[in-house]
Request: fold
Amino acid sequence: MSENPADLLPELCALLGAVLGLVAGLFLPRTRQWIAVLGCAAGLAAGLVFAVLAAGRPDAMTFDAFMLDPVTHVTRVTVLAGTLAVLGLAAGPVRGHPRETEFAVLTVLAALGTILLGASSDLLVLVAAYLLASIPAYALAGFGKDAPGTEAALKYYLLGAFFGIFMLTGVTLLYGLGRATAYEAVALPDTPAVTIAAALLLLGLLFKAGAVPGHFWIPDVAEGAPPVVAAFVTTVPKIGAFAALYRLGTELDVPDWTLLVALIAAATMTLGNLAAFGQRNVRRLLAYSTVGQAGYLLVPVAMAGRTGLAEPALLFYLGAYAITNLGAFAVVVAAGEDDLPAYGGLARRSPALALALAVCLLGLVGTPPTAVFAGKLLMFGAAMDGAYAWLAVAAAVNSVASVFYYLRWIVPVFGRGQGPPAPVRTGAAAIACAAALGSVAMGAAAGLLLG
Reply:
């Protein structure tokens, strides 16, 4: 264990970027708020560089509460890179907005909380990280200041507060039972009270992950918030939540952990896929898709401690999911359309954007050679190796079922129809194409990355 501030350079860079952006925004005119946004982006980019450099160092703990291990390294890189992509998506829709600086600062602070959530190894730090990752996101959901956005923000906040109370109760019980807050120091007895406390703690993290039973906010926020915000809150906060769930599963000896999380995983993937079938709003479709993906991501979380495949399965799948889901939302931002029929004939108006959409949606199914395909293979392997074959079968059945609602979007894109106007947001279209290429490249290089 060390107390060297240099160990936290990625987080400090992101924090410095947010602070400088906020201060600069106080003095810049509205027409030059982009300078403050650039400062936030610079902090994220610097943090990303330091995160990559730190990934080659031995595992350690710093300040007795912050783990430096592969889970933290992947969380850092994925969150920082994903947040940079979100700021790129916002360059068009938010440029010149009276609260352009606030948007960037809130996004960076939420990302910072997400990193802390995935890296914390202390129950009290976990609670603080949960709040930091949540409160800025509530404000972002209502950024548009319209009726749908206000409703979405209110639902998001109320559910976050509700599940946060359960989480705090679980932390309190675990502290009382284990006589410590640091994961390595908690000594839990084998009693039903421990299982109850862990279940209460799970509720808060399941809310952040968008998994059952904390998934209710996702479709409403995805539809009511601005598309860029929807892309952020359905992607980035999940990364820290799943990392935190995995860390709890490996470091705390909770009775019945595997069975509890496995049942939640099966329920989440099934509900998400079934609910997506009847959606005609593409943002709600993607929202329920993210619920289904949360179910798949919970499989390696359930296998934590049972098989060595659990950690690489989770970490690779997190990166694959982030780049693919952001790519799909980037298409929505670029096209500026929410209704499914409006995408008919998109390939005639913008072939590159239509191809990027097809790659991302088929990637979410798990079609080779995309990144999610490799992630799902690892996920199936972890379930089988962990002696939970029924969970692997449930994931396979749900993956096949998801093909149908993704095809409901893909087929009209390459069929007849006028389609939406040619994208005027060329930046978002470029990010969508880059994400699609990145998904394919990541899948093709899966062996190298895992090695």
Summary: Residues 257-451 form one domain. The mean pLDDT is 93.
